[in-house]
Amino acid sequence: MPIYQVIILAIVQGITEFLPVSSSAHLALAPWLLGWKDPGLTFDIALHFGTLLAVLGYFFRDWVQIVAQAFGIHLKGEDAELARNPKLLWLLALGSIPVGIAGYIFKEQAETTWRNPLIVGTMLIAIGLVMWAAERVSRKDRDVGAVNALDAGIIGLSQALAIVPGTSRSGITISTALFRNLDRVAAARFSFLLSTPAIAGAAGSAYHHLHKNGGIPPDMKMPFLLGILISAVVGAGVIAFFMRFLRHRSLYPFIVYRIIFGIIVLALAFFRPPTG
Questions:
Q1: Do the beta carbons of residue 123 and residue 164 sit within 8 Å?
Q2: Torsion-angle region of residue 166: left (phi > 0), alpha (psi -120 to 50) or beta?
Q3: Which of 2, 34, 114, 191 sits between 20 and 30 A of 77, alpha carbons compared?
C-alpha cells in the first residue's frame, strides 16, 4: 500500500470519525472516487485503533472519574457535571448493547453490500435531515449529569444504525441526544463517551479475526503503524476543535455538507460504477 494513500486515508479517518459526516462513507468512497484498490481489513483495523487512542486520550480524565465513581471512589478535582451522575458507567454500558448486537448480526452486510454508493449517498442525506430536525426541536437544556437510563437506551439504539455506511456514529447519536434535549456540548460529550466501547469492540473483534488468519502481513506493518499514529493525532485534534465549535455554533454547516455530498455521491453512482 503506497505511503501517500496511508497518509490520506488516515487523515480522512481522523477528521471524519468524530465530525458528524460519516467516516465509513468517506473511507468507502475514497478508493472508489480516486480509483484506488480497497485497502482491506488490516488497514481498517489500524484506523480504528488510531481513533480509539484519540477518544481515550482526549476523554482520559472523564473515563477515570466515570469508572472511579461507579465504584464509590471520589477523586480530587472531579468534574462537577460527571459527579452528578455516578451511574454513568452503567448507563454507557447499557447504551453500548444495541450496537454490539447489530454489529454481530449485520457485520457481513456492513462490510460488503452496504458499502454501496447508493446506500451511502442516501444515508448522508437522510441523517443530515435528522440532524436538522434535532437542531430545530431540541430545548438544549440538559447536560450529561442529567442523563438517565431511558436516554442511554434510546441513544444507544440510535448508535446501532451507525453500522450502515453513511450514517455517522456521532451524527446519529448527537442528534438523538438533542432530541432528548441535551445541549450540544453535552450531546457530543455523551456521544464520544458512548462511542469508545463500540470502537474498542469493533477494533478488538477485527484484530482477533486478523490474528486467526495469520496476523498483519509483512508488507502492511509500516502502513498499520503509520495509520494508527496519524489517525490518532488528527482525531484528537478534531475532537478538541469540535467540542469548542459546539460551545458557540450549531450543526448546520455539517448538515449542509452532508446533503451536498450525498447528492454528489448519488449523482456519481448513476454514471460511475464502483471499482472491483
A1: yes
A2: left
A3: 191
